[in-house]
Amino acid sequence: MKKINIYIDGNNLYRSAKELGFEIDYKKFRGWLRQKYNPQFVYLFIGLVPERAKFYEYLQKSGFILVFKQTVSVGEKIKGNCDAELVLKTTSDFYTKAFDSCILITGDGDFGCLVEFLQENKSMNRVIAPDENKCSFLLRNKNVEITFLNDHYHKFSKKI
């Protein structure tokens, strides 16, 4: 049986769903991923905000492995870009043979080079993009299968 790992750009997923008017039920989302792709591990890359500890516990109980990035406050905004952590973890897992293929959940074109690397090494399963209208051309032009969540949010989210 093939080992599949999923790597989620948490900020991209959250913001895209919110812009489309959805609030994700992460427990249902994890169930949907399990049913559809049967992953071995699901990593969620997220900025660390100490006041959100209860939410992080909920995510872990729902079956996500959290990978945190230290955040910095810039005025009212909290910044915690996890792109480098996601690339490093995915690449490290590739070299340690932690998966046979992987799925990236993001619409961010910055991950185009990771998609290319995984494709060249026959380890790329697909990209799941949170928003069809905001999925970067830098991912779309990689000849990788892309599943768009626009038609699936109703299965694991509520309208806000």
Query: Could you estimate the helical fraction of the residues in percent?
Result: 25-40%
CATH architectural label: 3-Layer(aba) Sandwich
For this structure, what is the CATH class? Alpha Beta
Low-confidence stretches: none
Apparent shape: globular
Determine the CATH superfamily.
5'-nuclease
Mean pLDDT: 95
Task: Give me the secondary-structure category.
Answer: alpha/beta
Radius of gyration: 15 Å
Succession of helices and strands: EHEHEHEEEHEHEHEHE
**Biggest sheet: strands, sense, closure?**
6 strands, parallel
Count of beta strands: 10
Helices and strands, with pairings:
Blueprint: E1 4-9, H1 10-19, E2 22-24, H2 26-37, E3 41-48, H3 53-61, E4 65-70, E5 72-74, E6 77-79, H4 83-95, E7 101-105, H5 112-120, E8 124-129, H6 137-140, E9 146-148, H7 153-156, E10 157-159
Parallel strand pairs: 1-3, 1-7, 3-4, 7-8, 8-9
Antiparallel strand pairs: 2-10, 5-6
Give the key terms:
160 residues; alpha/beta; Rossmann fold; six-stranded parallel β-sheet; two-stranded antiparallel sheet; 7 helices
Describe this structure in words.
By secondary structure, the protein is α/β, with parallel strands linked by helices. It has a single domain (4-159), classed as 5'-nuclease (Rossmann fold). Helices cover 38% and strands 29% of the residues. The radius of gyration is 15 Å and the shape is globular. The protein starts with a strand and ends with a strand. The mean pLDDT is 95.
At a glance:
The chain has helices spanning 10-19, 26-37, 53-61, 83-95, 112-120, 137-140, 153-156, and strands spanning 4-9, 22-24, 41-48, 65-70, 72-74, 77-79, 101-105, 124-129, 146-148, 157-159.
